[in-house]
Design goal:
about 475 residues, mainly alpha, 20 helices
Length: about 475
Amino acid sequence: MLSSNPAKKKPTSPIIRWLNRAVAAIALVNLGLIAFDLSYIPFRDQYLRFLPEFTDWYGEQFKGIEPNPDTESYIQAVDDFVNSGGLSAGDADQRLADLRQRSVDMINQDPFAIANKSGTLERIKRRVQEEVDETNATQAFEQFWSRDYIEQEGTAGAIAFFNERVRPLMATNYYRGIGENGRPVDEFWRIDNWFIAIFAADFVIRTIHLARRYNGVNWFDAMIWRWYDIFLLLPFWRWLRVIPTVLRVNQSRLIDLEPVRDRLIHGVIASVSIEMTEIVVLRVVEQLQQLVRDGSAVQWLMYPEKRRRYVDITGVDEAAEISKEVTHLLVYQMLPQIKPEIEAIAKHSVESMLRQSPAYRGLVQIPGLGALPHRINERVIADATDNAYQSLVSSLEDDEGKALSQALVARMGEVIRTELINDGTLQTLETLIVDLLEELKHNYVEQLGEKDFDDIEYETHHLYEMTQGSRSARPALGPKQSP
C-alpha cells in the first residue's frame, strides 16, 4: 500500500550551498569589473579625481593609454620655466615665446581630438579667456604668457592659476594605441579569461550533474536547462552577464532580491493590465457599436426566427430558466413586501375618484356615518389586492395559467417589435445607442489616462502584501497521518 505522505525533498548539502554562493560571488565580482571597464573611458576624468594612480595604471595596462606627448610637453615646458627661475632667468623671454607658440599650436591642432576630448580644450580656452578678460582664445594665451602680464600678476599667482585651473584638464588628455584589428587597444580579456575559465568549469560540472541526476536528460538538454549561463562564457557582449549573475545571486540567497523582483513584476503587470484593459474595453464597445450600425443587433432582437443556431452546451434553456427565476423573485418575494405601498396607492386613487361624486360627499356628511365609507374603501382595496395576488400565484402554479402567461409575454414582445419598426423609433434608438457607446468609450479612455500609474502600482503592491500576509498567517497543514 502506497503511503499518502508526499516524498520529502532532499535538502541541499552545506557544501553545495557554499559552492553556489562562491560562484555567485565570483560572478558578482566579474560583473563589477565589467561595469568598471565599460565605464573607464567615459568616466576616466572622474576616476582620476579619486583614484589617480590606479586609473593611470589600469589605462596603461589594459587600455593602451599613454600620456599625450603634446600636452605632456606643454606641461613640462611650464615646469621648466618655473624651475629655471621664472622671469629672473636669462632665457625667460625665450621660454615665454615658446609657451605662446605651443598655445597657438594647441588651439589650431587640437591634440584633445584624438581622445574625443575636444570639449576639455574648450574649457581650458574659456578659463584662460576669463582670467585675462579677453574674448579671443589665441590672444588670451599670448597675453597670459607675456612678461607684462606675469609681472602684473606675479609669477606665483600666474603659475598658481595654471596649476589649479588648467593643468588638471591637460593631464586628463591621453593617447590610446590602435591594435592589429584596427580598433583601440583593449586587453580586458587578460582579466576576463580567468573568470570565463571558472564559469566554464562550473557549467560543465552542472551539466554533468543534471544529466546524471534526471532520467532521460542528456547533456544537450542539461545545457539548455541553464541556457542563461552561456552568457558567462561569451568574450563579447559582456554586459549580458547581468542576467545570469542576478539569477545566481538570487538562487544562492547571497543577496535577497525577492522584494526587487516582486516590485518589478508588479510594476510590469500594472502597466500591462492598464493597456490590456483599455484595449479590451474599447474593442468590446466598438464591437457593440458595429453590431448596432450594421443591424445585427436589431436582426437578433426583432427577428428571433432568423437567429443563427448556436451550440447548446448544458442542454438547458437558459433564457427560460432566467425568466422563471425572475418571475419567482418578483411574485413570491418582492410583491408581498411592497403590498402596503400598492394598497396605499390604490386607496388614494379610489378616494380621489369618489370625492368627485356628490353622493359620496353627502354620505360622508351624515352624522355617525362619516368614517364608514373610508373603512369600506380600505376593506375593498385590501380584499382586491389579496385576491389579485392569489390569482396571480394560482395562475403561475397552474399549467394552463403558465401557458397563458407565456402567450401574453410573447404577444407583448411581438407588439413591441412591430410598433418599433412601424413608427421609426428603432432608427432613433440605434443612433442614441451608438452615441452613448461613443461617449462611454471616450470617457473611459480619459479616465484611464488621468489615472496615475504610481497609484495603480501602489494599490497592486498593497493588495499583494495583504494577500501574502494572510497566507503566512494561516497554519501550515501537514500531510495526513495514516492511522
